[in-house]
Every structure is written in C-alpha cells, then in structure tokens.
Amino acid sequence: MSQSILQRRLVDVSERLKRMRAELAVTDEQLVFLEEQAEDVRLRALVAETPLADVEARDARRHADAQAQHRDALRATVRELEAEQDSLLDRISAELSAR
After folding, report:
1. Contact indicator for 58, 45 with CB cutoff of 8 Å
2. Could you give the CA distance from residue 25 to residue 97 in angstroms, rounded to a whole number?
3. For residues 77 and 20, is the Cβ–Cβ distance under 8 A?
4. Rounded CA gap, 50 and 36, in Å?
5. What pTM did the predictor assign?
6. What residues contact 1, with CB distance under 8 A and at least 6 apart?
7. pLDDT value of position 1
8. What is the rounded distance in angstroms from the CA atom of residue 99 to the CA atom of residue 96?
9. Does residue 88 carry a pLDDT above 90?
10. How far is Cα 74 from Cα 85, in angstroms, rounded to an integer?
11. Please, are residues 24 and 76 in contact by the beta-carbon 8 Å criterion?
12. Which end of the chain lies in a sparser environment, N or C, as judged by fewer CB atoms within 10 Å?
C-alpha cells in the first residue's frame, strides 16, 4: 500500500478516535448521573413500597444499564481504533525503514 494511502487512513482513524474518545467522556459523565439517579429512585421506592415506585425504579435502572452498555460499546470501538492506528503506524514505520 502506498505511503500516501497509509497516511490518509491514519489521519482518518485518528479523527475517528478523537471523536469516539470525546463521546466516551460525555457518556461516562451521563452514566454517573444515571447511576446516581437510579440509586435515588430505588431508595425512594423502598420507602414508598408502592407498585408505581417499583416501576419507576426499574425504569431508572434500565436507563442506567442501557447507558452502561453504550459506554462499553464505545470503549470497544476505541480499543479497535487504537489497534488499527497502531497497525498503520507500524506499517508506515516498516516502509520508512525499508527505504
């Protein structure tokens, strides 16, 4: 693969990685909020002992769990992009060394 193609791919991967890391940071912040909210609603449901409070607690927990799954997917994407970036850097380095 030509040097210019590798460099363009590296720039693309780097930009995607930057966006994913920013999204991951926001998602982490949102997850902290949702976890705290779910715990508050759970405690209120324990005190209230009503079916409606239990439903609200389950809903809050589901939202927090969904956000955690989203965060985990973003982390996996970041790891994949980092691996791809490392691979591209290795290929560029090998081509430069071969010259």
Report:
1. no
2. 37
3. yes
4. 21
5. 0.87
6. 91
7. 67
8. 5
9. yes
10. 16
11. no
12. C
Residues in the chain: 99
> Tokens representing 37?
């909210």
Return the structure tokens found at 38: 């779910």
CB 79 within 8 A of CB 72: no
Among residues of the chain, what percentage have pLDDT more than 70? Answer: 99
Task: Report the chain's terminal Cα–Cα distance, integer Å.
Answer: 14
